[in-house]
Each structure stands twice: as structure tokens, then as C-alpha cells.
Amino acid sequence: xxxxxxxxxxxxxxxxxxxxxxxxxxxxxxxxxxxxxxxxxxxxxxxxxxxxxxxxxxxxxxxxxxxxxxxxxxxxxxxxxxxxxxxxxxxxxxxxxxxxxxxxxxxxxxxxxxxxxxxxxxxxxxxxxxxxxxxxxxxxxxxxxxxxxxxxxxxxxxxxxxxxxxxxxxxxxxxxxxxxxxxxxxxxxxxxxxxxxxxxxxxxxxxxxxxxxxxxxxxxxxxxxxxxxxxxxxxxxxxxxxxxxxxxxxxxxxxxxxxxxxxxxxxxxxxxxxxxxxxxxxxxxxxxxxxxxxxxxxxxxxxxxxxxxxxxxxxxxxxxxxxxxxxxxxxxxxxxxxxxxxxxxxxxxxxxxxxxxxxxxxxxxxxxxx
Length: 370
Ligand SMILES: [Zn+2]
What we know:
The chain is an alpha+beta fold. It folds into 2 domains: 10-178 and 289-369, Zn peptidases (Aminopeptidase), CATH 3.40.630; 179-286, Alpha-Beta Plaits (2-Layer Sandwich). Helices cover 33% and strands 25% of the residues. The protein has helices at residues 10-21, 30-46, 85-88, 103-122, 147-154, 204-216, 256-268, 293-309, 324-328, 356-369; strands at residues 50-53, 59-63, 70-76, 92-94, 97-99, 131-136, 157-162, 173-177, 179-188, 192-193, 226-234, 240-241, 244-253, 277-286, 315-318, 333-335, 341-342, 350-352. A 6-stranded mixed β-sheet has the order 1-2-6-3-7-16, with helices on both faces. The chain has a 4-stranded antiparallel β-sheet with strand order 4-5-18-17. β4 and β5 form a beta hairpin. The chain is elongated and about 80 Å long. Bound molecules: zinc ion. Residues 76, 105-106, 139, 164, 322 line the site of zinc ion (ZN). Zinc ion (ZN) binds next to α4.
């Protein structure tokens, strides 16, 4: 017989979510991200957690850690949305959909987690080994400052639960993710007057155009490898042969073999004009999150719980990375345990209020039983 847990209270979930959403927290502004972290740390302290600020800006909240491995929960306080987004994309409820920047990815996940932990407390339950929550400031930019802390925390954990959003517009959890990386190419040519002396110049933009076409050809969809130049900037004036151009490439891979092939391909590329130089930086920042046996077992457990609670969940491997990629290489990791919804990184970002409470119930049980 399972203990009975109090039902999630939607009004209270919404009140807490609104508090986090109305503090804008782009990854580029650690002070703003810190404001969200302060609120969440307050919630953790009110529940009696021991809280620490770790090197790199991650906060750690320890709830009743004992001997033996704990349950690790990975969350992030940053969003992809710049300051001022709330003016154009305000907090807005329409029927069962609650819109706003960072709602789905992943402020609702943080709020749901705290409500799940409170439900455990109210029922007098706590998992053996306790719960360690990490709240990182830089997930949306590849976790440069938090990766070491996440991997260190995974060493003491038996499982990692990640309340990132489920698969868009579904109840499906995430049991695999591609590895992600990015590269930046800095091309340097020779400037010259575009009308009087074009032959003295060496165009960095022409070289960039070659790079876009050549490097995107490294993609291999059958292997799950995608390559996309997502940013490009260069030139100084329309009538000057451009001596500078910069481009950034997004890379996703399903295997380390493919990651190596891309790494070699990007670094080996050279402009056809030998008066243009190319400097490459970047690389793979998250390893592929493979659907491991331990993760699939954890999913099966979640599925059985969901059925008992009266709903069906599935699972998928997805293209986007998360901090779960780091832990999946070490311990069973189940991702997508936040609120259902849609529109991560898009203007229609929202959570589904009709489905959210069920996923809080699911997370409550998993925290205890995983
Ligand atoms: Zn996220």
C-alpha cells in the first residue's frame, strides 16, 4: 500500500510559477539568474534544506542526506529569453494553457519539484539517502560553469531525475538525448576599397559562404547528426571588401564516433583563398545521452506509477541536450519530468494546466521510489 499524498493545488502551483516567471533570467545575466535562485533557495531553506553556493554559480540544496546514495535532481534557473521579453510575451492564461517566457523550460519543473517534495513531507515520507537538488545558472548555454558540479554530485547518487519539460505537447518522458556542441569560426581576410581596388582584398564573407555550404554537408541525418550554421556576422561597410567574418555552428550527434568525425571535419576545413585565415574554437559540450538499461528501467517504473495514477506516458529520445546528458553517462537518468506543454525557446511557450498536476503526482512518487 502506498502512502497517500495531498493533491497538488493548482492555484498554489500557479502562484509560485508566476513569482519565478516574472523575474527574467537570461543566461547572459548571472545577477538576474541569481534573483530566481534566491527565491528557490528561500523555498529550500523553509523546508529545512542545507544550501550551498558552489563554484561556477550552481546552488546546491540538500534535503535529509544520510549514508548511502541519494536521489539527484537537476534544475536550471536560466532561460533563453532576453530582458524585456515579458513586455511582449507576458504571463497569460488562456483556458488550460499558461503562457510566458521560461514557463515550460523549466520554471514549472522547479515549482513542480518543490510541490512534490512538500507532498512527501506532508505525508511523512522521504527517500532513503535523501534528495540533492542542483540549480544551475547556465544550462541554456551548455553548462560551462556547472558541468563539474553536476558530475561530482552524480558520483554520490543512485539516480538522476530531471524536471525539464516532457516531449512537446505530450506526456512523453525523455530517455535519450543527442550530444550537443557548437563551433565558432573566425575568418580573417584583407580589407580593400570595393570599387577602386577589389583585387587587393580577400573577402572573409566569401570564405564564410564557402564554409556554410561545406560544413553543413558534414551532417548525416541517417546517423542522427545535424549541423547548422545559426549565426553569422561580418563586414564593416557595404563598399569595403570585408576582412572579418564570424560564424557559429550548432552540432548534434547520437554517438561519440560521429562527434569525432565532425570535430575533424570542422578543424580540417580551409578557405579556398589562402589569403583568408580561419580560427576554430568550440567543440562537443554535452556527450550523447544514450538510452541505457538503467534509464529504461527507471522509465518502466515511472510508467507503472502513471498507470496507477490513471494516465499513460511514453518515452522518446530527442535532439536537444540537457544536464541529464552529463549524468546519463554515469547513473540511470530520467528526463522530461517537468510540466507538459509546448513551445520551448519559442513565442508560444506554455504549460498545460490540465496535465501539470498529474506530473507533479508522478514526480512525488518517483522521488520516493526511484
Ligand atoms: Zn531546460
